[in-house]
Design a protein that fits this description.
seven-stranded parallel beta sheet, alpha/beta, three-stranded mixed beta sheet, 353 residues
Length: 353
């Protein structure tokens, strides 16, 4: 029986990974200690998702473990030595706003926690593909220096620019303001690459745009589309920070992200980096997302505007996914933006009654 270890198994991408591999005769070892509730409060807790996985996924085995505890991580990997077929690391402190409140916790979770997992993998499962859910924030605010044009509802890159199809992995991560979150994730990202290039482990960093889906427990500090729909449905006021609300994000469904992971696991490479996001297939500005949420829900959003943008925030981000598609041509998008938001809407309605 194959054993898949999923770190952050009750989160958005982690739970999608568990459900995906539950379709196959695998044992899924999940690690999640619900630090999301500590970061963002009770409404962002992953406890319900964890309980659902325990109750409904036959092959699922849960461990309430803190990845900052190196000995506990090593003991877990040692227990399954010789049986681990893949490690999918999705756990993190995911907010650049929150990181500035407690840089120590942010760095130890994102960087040191990743190091602990890599060391355990090197010791007990060096042949198992190791996937890390990184972020486009490793590029810092470099994308904000791109030549952008202001359109009625969005910012857009100048036609003919090399990044018009989306920002590729060729963009430098140096000489930019990352936010402390971006710095801690960049440290982890580089470690994952180095364990591939230096030690030969089959590793990949997937630098995500806005990863989202119906399982997202969105809050103001993290989970853009989920939180926007929650506010639209509930009547809760929403705040837009800077850039006239025209900042652009590409949005990718968690299903499509995990299918990319599956492709990598089936044919792993060492020390790879992939930008992964909705690309030109699925992207929107905040203003455009507000309009879509109102159309889908039939309700008006109450929102306000604050001139000051979030530190290190991107004005325009669209991922170029062509490198991954070249390496793994069987991978295709299943979800577009409207389908994605319609799924989020249905789940928000179910949760709110």
């Amino acid at each position: 029986m194959r054993t898949i270890i999923v770190i952050g198994s009750a989160g958005l991408i982690g739970s999608e990974t568990v459900k995906r591999f539950a379709k196959e005769p695998d044992r899924i070892v999940g690690v999640d200690n619900d630090m999301r509730a500590q970061f963002f409060g009770a409404e962002a807790s992953t406890k319900k998702t964890r309980d659902d996985l325990i109750a409904n996924v036959r092959a699922y085995e849960h461990h309430d473990l803190d990845i900052r505890n190196s000995s506990a991580v090593a003991e877990l990997f040692k227990r399954y030595r010789g049986k681990i077929d893949a490690i999918v690391h999705t756990a993190s402190q995911p907010s650049h706003d929150w990181a500035a409140r407690d840089p120590q916790i942010d760095f130890t979770v994102n960087a040191n926690g990743t190091l602990n997992l890599l060391e355990a993998a090197r010791a007990f499962s060096p042949e198992a593909p190791f996937i890390f859910t990184s972020t486009n924030k490793v590029y810092g605010d470099t994308p904000n220096r791109l030549p952008l044009q202001e359109l009625p509802t969005r910012w857009e890159i100048e036609p003919g620019h090399e990044y018009e199809p989306g920002i590729s992995e060729t963009m430098s991560i140096d000489y930019s303001k990352h936010s402390l979150f971006g710095a801690s994730k960049a440290a982890a990202d580089l470690l994952v690459q180095e364990y591939g290039r230096y030690f030969g482990l089959p590793t990949a960093s997937f630098r995500g745009g806005c990863l989202t889906g119906p399982a997202h427990a969105g809050t103001e500090l993290h989970g853009f589309l989920s939180y926007l729909m929650i506010c639209t449905v509930s009547g809760r006021p929403y705040r837009v920070f800077g850039y006239k609300g025209k900042q652009v994000r590409d949005n990718i469904h968690s299903f499509d992200v995990v299918e990319a992971f599956v492709e990598f696991i089936h044919a792993p490479r060492s020390g790879e980096v992939y930008n992964i996001g909705g690309s030109r297939h699925s992207n929107c500005s905040i203003l455009e997302a507000i309009t879509l949420c109102e159309e889908i829900s039939g309700r008006k959003l109450t929102w306000g505007y604050e001139e000051t943008n979030r530190v290190g925030d991107h004005i325009w981000w669209i991922s170029d996914v062509r490198k991954f598609q070249k390496h793994y041509p069987a991978w295709r998008f299943r979800y577009g933006l409207r389908e994605l938001l319609e799924e989020i809407y249905r789940v928000v309605i179910e949760r709110t009654g």
